[in-house]
Each structure stands twice: as C-alpha cells, then as structure tokens.
Amino acid sequence: MPESSMIGTRIRERRVMNGIRQSDLARMVGISPSYLNLIEHNRRRIGGKTLLKLAEALEVEPSALSEGAEATLLAALREAAGAQSELGIETDRVQEFAGRFSGWANLLARLHARVESLERTVETLTDRLAHDPHLAASLHEVISSVTAIRSTSSILVETEALEPEWQARFHRNIDEDSRRLAEGAESLVRYLEGAASSEADIKSPQDELQAFLTRNGFHFPSLEGDASGPFEITTIIEAADELGTEAARRLARDTLDQYRADARVLQLAPFLEEVRRDPSPERLAQVFCCGLPLIFRRLAALPESEIGLIGLVICDMSGALIFRRPFPGFVMPRDAAACALWPLFQVLGQPQIPVRAQMRQAGRGQETVLALAAAEQIWPATFDHPALLRSHMLILPETYGRAGDPVRDVGASCRICPLRECRARREPSIVADGF
Amino acid sequence: MDKKVLLIEDEPNIIEAISFILSRDGWEVKTHSNGHDAMDAVRARRPDLVILDVMLPGKSGFDILQEIRADAELGATPVLMLTARGQVKDRELAEKSGVSRYMTKPFANADVLEAVRSMVCP
Fold first, then answer.
1. A156 to chain B: nearest residue by CA?
2. Cβ–Cβ gap A173/B21 under 8 Å
3. CA dihedral for A287, A292, A297, A303, sign (positive or negative)
C-alpha cells in the first residue's frame, strides 16, 4: 500500500480518538460526509487546504497526518524487522502498522534502539574482562611466581642431601617469589575492586532507589509531620538526581508512601522517646500496641545518630527483596536470590510466629548479628486469592542478642557462598571450590 | 646418557628449578630466555628436546614452535610446551602447531621429569 494512501487511516484514527463523528468533522472543514468517508478509507488523495483544515480541526500538526513525519520511524521499524527476519514480519505492511498504531510503532522502534545499545554495552564489558591487559599481566605474574615456588619448594623437600649452597640459593628464590606473589595478588585484588566500582554507570531502577535512600540516610524529616502529604513526596522525588528513570521514581513513591503512612501511625516524637528509653522492638510493639513489622520499619527510618547500626530487609511472598537498609558487613544480594536460611524466609511459612536468631554470614571476618523476623499481611485472603504477605527482617549488632544463643551459619546468595555441604544450596558456588 | 635439553623460558627462578631437576636426572641443560632469537639458539644447540614457554618476551612460543616444525633439519625435535593458561583455545593452537606435549603451570617436578623422559628415548 503506498504511503500517501495511509493519510486517510491516520485521519480516521485521530477523529475516533478525539470522539468526533464523521459528519461533524466534515461540516467543520466544509466537505461532504461522503467525501470525508472516501478520504478516510484511502480512496481519495488529499492535500493542500483540506489537509491543513483537517489537521486544525483534529488539533494535530499537519505533518502528523502526512507521511513525512514517519520516515525515520519507518526506517527504524524496517531495521528492527530485519534483525528478526525469521519471524516472517509483514514488512510490506509497515506503513499501515505505523499509521494505525503510531504509539506501539514508536515503542517498538525505541525498544529496538535500546536493545542495540545494551548489546553494545554487554560486548564492551565482556571484552574488557577477556582482553584486559592489566588483568592478564597480573594473572601471569601470579601464576609464574606460584610455578617457581612450587617447583623450588619440592626440590627442597624431595632432594636428599642437598648441598648447603643450593639450599641457600633455593631458599632465597622462594623468598623472592613469595614477595612477587604477594604483590601480584594485591594488584589482582585492587583490579577486581576497581572493576566493581566501574560498573557504577550500569544501574537498575532498584539501584537508583537504593542510591536515593542511602543519600537520605533512610530518614525523611519532611514526611514526619502530621501535615505531610503527596505534595511533600513529590517535592522530595523531583529534587532527587539519583532517580533518573520513571520506574525508579515510581519505586521511590511507593517506598515514601509507606514511610508516610507509618509515620502517621507511629509519630516521631513519642516513638523516639520510647526508643531512647529502650529500643527493644518487642517492648516497643507492646507499648504502642502494634505489630512488629511496623516497629521494624520505624526503627529503620531513624537516622543513624539515634539508633546506631541497624539493617532492614523486606521481601514479598516470592522471596524478592523489595527493601534493603544495609547493615555494615552483612551482604544483601542486589539481583540474585538471597540465602534460603535467612529467618526472613522462615516466617513466610509461619506468618504468626516471629523468629529471633543470631546468625553469621559465611566468609572471611564476618561478624555475628541478631536477626528479628516477622511477617505482615498486606492484603487479606479471598476465596479466589491467597493473602498477600511481606516478610521483614531487622538486623542489629550482636550486643542486642542473648548471650549463649546458638549462632546460625547463613550465606548471602549461593553463587558467592563458601558454605560447604549446605542442604539449602540451589546452585554451585564460584568461591567454594575455586581455591 | 647425556641427552641435551634446551629450555626456553624467561622466569629466572623457574629456569633454575627446572635446570636443577633435569641436571640431577642426568640431562645436559642449556637455557635461553627470550623469544627474538630463540630459533637461533635451537639451531646452534641442536637439542634432543625443547622445553618452550608460551609467553616469551619478543615472540610467542606458538610462533617459535611453528618455525621449528617448518625447519627441514630440526622439524622432528620433540617440543614440550609450558603455558600459564589452560584454555582450550591455547591447547588447540599448540596442537595445530605440532606440539609433542603440553603442560600447564604450575606443574609438579615429577610430571616434568616423566614427560621429558618419555619424549626422548635414551
């Protein structure tokens, strides 16, 4: 179908969208309804004055009705179709598609461009790891010195009656190589740390939300007052540079809505007074006559100057982590599923029974922490739907715990967990068997 | 027996260790530590066996191996290749270039001895 013929389709779509009857539009531009009908069905050519009048009546730019505005869109659609040629896309009807569904067509073109740019990013990153000269050099250095040490030390151990001169020489070599090994290992660690931070430019909406909450210290004074409302939330969100995407702003709005609702129930001044007296969550729940999850959220909304170190992680019924206030040293995975041994997931099975557990994450130099977990129903059950729950786990320093309680060994997420023979493991670790 | 081994490797302490274990086993060991003129060294020494590192300054072990194999007189010399990378690609490349045996660093001394002995019949 020739491009010019599709102007009629666009006029018809636009008219229907504006809710104007064909006869009314015909009268507005001074043509007969039957002539407009022919135009709309692409049976009559249209141009000049009639097009301008129609555009005016339909409140659009004339170019939106004529084909010129769509040239780039059509090219992008053809390109997207070319990349997926095996699908048998109706490329011969691309103008019709773009004309009838301009929103969908624009979305498709934009998504295709986004996929292409993401693919380039992935390629660059893969390339960086596989061909990074610094990484290759550090690894070579480490392997060379390990090779020399291994060979030399077994000479020292296995050679009977080794002459003192040789012995001294090999000892000196081992000393030299172990120094090199130390340097090589150090530079590897530096490199890997650097590589982690250079990923900073690749962010998901959750990362943006996390950066936003972290900068604010998880505390929002303007939402604490009785008078606060949607306006305060909008003001905070609009001022936040971290929230670059619509999805991130949406997540932030949900989080702050919850914050404001909590702050209305448990107002800051009386809550703080009781916290200063004794911050034990169980006692606070009794004093304020409310559930533990609300107490957890309010505690985790206090500035560090008031509450000290505190962490909170919230998950939905699928186990996805939807809120994280980090606790120093306690790893909460960003994308991967967390460790199934966390008390957080235990309470989903028995929502009425909160869990208190001392736990220690596997890994070097990990501290024991106190975990308090409780679930909250956020939507009641019906005969068609199960109740919706959210599980909360508050993390406090070990000093809050009871001395002598057993300590549970847990992980962060399986891929980076060194725990051996774990019944909860769902995929192999990249660290357990590596060295 | 006094068979001759030429060790082409650039790490001085690895050279010293391999030289030591091979000499104690009765081999005559000559060493060379860069890639540029490694081929000249092979021609001059005419060894019974070459131990060749992959990562050498100046020229890669793969290139040197190909040059040895292309040489009319030295082409049949057994070559034991040492590499710091166990990647499949490297191994394939070495095999295509005509390597006799292939060993990954770090290695056990006993394995090197066993390999060298099995490659040259006394």
1. B17
2. no
3. positive
In this structure, are A310 and A425 located in the same domain? Answer: yes
User: Model confidence at A131, in pLDDT bands (50, 70, 90)?
Assistant: low
**What is the rounded CA–CA span in Å between residue B60 and residue B58?**
7
Distance CA A197, CA A165 (A): 49
Helix (H, G, I), strand (E, B), or coil: what is residue B37?
Answer: coil
Domains of chain A: total:
3
Short-list A135, A180, A133, CA closest to B11: A180
| C-alpha dihedral sign at A220, A225, A230, A235 | negative
Contacts of A158 in chain B (CB under 8 A): 109
A82 shares a domain with A190: no
CA distance B42 to B32: 9
Residue numbers in A near B11 (CB within 8 A): 144, 147-148
pLDDT-based confidence at residue A342 (cuts at 50, 70, 90) = very high
Q: Which of A184-198, A318-332, A341-355, B73-87 has the lowest mean pLDDT?
A: A184-198
Residue A90 in any domain: the answer is yes
Evaluate if residue A3 carries a pLDDT over 50.
Answer: no
pLDDT of residue A72: 66
Is A62's pLDDT higher than 80?
A: no
CA distance A292 to A419: 31
Q: What is the mean pLDDT of residues A256-275?
A: 94
Beta-carbon-side half-sphere exposure of residue A80 (alpha carbons within 13 Å): 19
For position A90, which CATH number holds? 1.10.260.40
Query: Is residue B122 included in any domain, yes or no?
Result: no
- Nearest by CB: B84 against A143, A158, A166: A143
- Is 0.90 surpassed by the pTM of this model? no
Instruction: Assess whether A143 and A100 both reside in one domain.
Output: no
- Structural domain range at position A146: 132-200
Specify if B117 maps to a domain. Answer: no
Whether A325 and A431 map to the same domain: the answer is: yes
Residue B52, domain extent: 4-112
Residue A198 has pLDDT above 70, yes or no: no
Residue A18 has pLDDT above 90, yes or no: no
**Contact at CB, A147 and B55, closer than 8 angstroms:** no
* Number of domains making up chain B: 1
> What's the pLDDT at A246?
81
Q: Is residue A57 part of a domain?
A: yes
Which of B11, B24, B108 is opposite residue A144, by nearest beta carbon?
B11
Q: Looking at the structure, do residues A334 and A414 belong to the same domain, yes or no?
A: yes
Alpha carbon of A187: minimum distance to chain B alpha carbons (Å): 18
